[in-house]
């Protein structure tokens, strides 16, 4: 993926993680608000995703601590059923992996990059 494709992928993935948390199940890789939308600048992509990100964070904030262990996300179609807590950790891991890839791209290009790991 190009740098902007990584950005889009992560923002769209956030939307899909949110949908799975809401439905407690897989939602497929079908239509999202980004479907058919041309790639924009990083600023445009972030602005478009902002309301979806806020909604996702609001949904997560509404859970109680015990929900992290008791709420299950059924992705039997992908071979697993996980607790909400584990599911959210995997979402964060997915984001971290792609963040590392983007930082590697920037390092290769000699572009100054943020020190997000320190």
Structural description of this entry:
The chain has 118 residues and is mainly alpha-helical. Helix content is 60%, strand content 7%. It has one domain (3-109): dinb family like domain (Four Helix Bundle (Hemerythrin (Met), subunit A), Up-down Bundle). It has helices spanning 3-23, 42-61, 67-70, 84-109; strands at 72-75, 80-83. The chain has a two-stranded antiparallel sheet with strand order 1-2.
Provide tags for this entry:
118 residues, Four Helix Bundle (Hemerythrin (Met), subunit A), mainly alpha, two-stranded antiparallel ribbon, 7% strand
Structural topology:
Elements: H1 3-23, H2 42-61, H3 67-70, E1 72-75, E2 80-83, H4 84-109
Helix pairs in contact: 1-2, 1-4
Could you write a compact summary of the structure shown?
The chain is mainly alpha-helical. It has 4 helices and 2 strands. A two-stranded antiparallel ribbon has the order 1-2.
Mean pLDDT: 92
The first-level CATH class name = Mainly Alpha
What is the N-to-C order of secondary-structure elements (H for helix, E for strand)? HHHEEH
CATH topology: Four Helix Bundle (Hemerythrin (Met), subunit A)
Radius of gyration: 16 Å
Architecture per CATH nomenclature, i.e. the level-2 architecture: Up-down Bundle
Which structural class do you get from the secondary structure elements? mainly alpha
Q: Could you tell me the number of beta strands?
A: 2
* Number of discrete helical segments: 4
What best-fitting shape do the alpha-carbon axes yield? globular
How are the strands ordered across the major sheet? 1-2
Report helical residue fraction.
Answer: 55-70%
**What's the story with the biggest beta sheet?**
2 strands, antiparallel
Uncertain spans, ≥5 residues at pLDDT below 50? Answer: none
CATH superfamily: dinb family like domain
Number of domains as seen in the coordinates: 1
- Report the β-strand fraction as a percent range: 5-15%
